[in-house]
Amino acid sequence: MSELDEILESISHVCKTDTSLVLNTVITSRLPDLDTR
């Protein structure tokens, strides 16, 4: 049971990290577009 909790926690941590990475990538890739406008 605790092992399962640990796995779920690590999965949720990875998901959060991936989400912030994707958001950062999208934001930085859109910055040039905003600058040219």
What keyword list fits this structure?
37 residues, mainly alpha, 1 helix
The fraction of residues in strands falls at under 5%
Q: Helix proportion of residues, in percent?
A: over 70%
How many angstroms separate the termini?
54 Å
Q: What characterizes the major β-sheet?
A: none
Shape summary: rod-shaped
Mean pLDDT: 83
Q: Tell how many strands the DSSP assignment holds.
A: 0
Given the structure, what is the number of helices? 1
Report on this structure:
The chain has 37 residues and is mostly helical. Helix content is 95%, strand content 0%. The protein is built from 1 helix and no strands. The protein has one helix spanning 2-36. The longest helix is centred in the middle third of the chain and has 35 residues, at 2-36. The model has no long low-confidence stretch (mean pLDDT 83).
Task: Give the topology.
Elements: H1 2-36
Summarize the structure.
It contains 1 helix and no strands. It has one helix at 2-36.
